[in-house]
Every structure is written in C-alpha cells, then in structure tokens.
Amino acid sequence: MAAKDSEGFRFVMRLLAWGGDFQGKGLVDEGDSIALTGEVLCGSEAS
Predict the structure, then answer these.
(1) How far apart are CA 43 and CA 36, in angstroms?
(2) How far from each other are the two terminal CA atoms of the chain, in whole angstroms?
(3) Which of 3, 17, 29, 46 sits in a 20 to 30 Å window from 10, CA-based?
(4) Angstrom distance (rounded) from CA 26 to CA 45
(5) How far apart are CA 44 and CA 38, in angstroms?
(6) Residue pLDDT tens, the chain, 47 long
(7) Is the pTM above the cut of 0.70?
(8) DSSP H or E stretch at residue 37
(9) Distance (Å, rounded) from C-alpha 8 to C-alpha 21?
C-alpha cells in the first residue's frame, strides 16, 4: 500500500506542477497580448 500511495502522491504532484506551468504560461501569454494591445492603441493614438 505504501508504494502505491507514494506513486499516487508523485502523480498528483506532477499533475499540480504541470497545471502550475500551464497556468504560468497562460498568464505570460495574456500579459504579452495586453502589452501588445497597449502598444497598438498608443501607436494609433500617436499617429
């Protein structure tokens, strides 16, 4: 049972780590698109 529990624990931790990486990438992508939108808006206002 102990071996099975640790395998399950490792799987859950890997899943959480993957979810964290995925969420982090999503936030970075969102930040980049917001920055790009800001540049486009500022650029069109300036011109």
Answers:
(1) 10
(2) 69
(3) 29
(4) 28
(5) 10
(6) 556 678 888 888 888 777 776 666 666 666 676 666 666 666 655 54
(7) no
(8) helix 2-46
(9) 20
Instruction: Please give the structure tokens belonging to residue 15.
Output: 């899943």
What is the C-alpha to C-alpha distance for residues 2 and 23, in angstroms, rounded to an integer?
Answer: 31
Tokens of 4: 């099975």
Q: What is the pLDDT of residue 7?
A: 86
- Would you state the structure tokens that stand for residue 12, as one six-digit string? 């859950």
Pick the closest to residue 8 from 24, 16, 23 (CA basis): 16
The pLDDT of residue 47 = 47
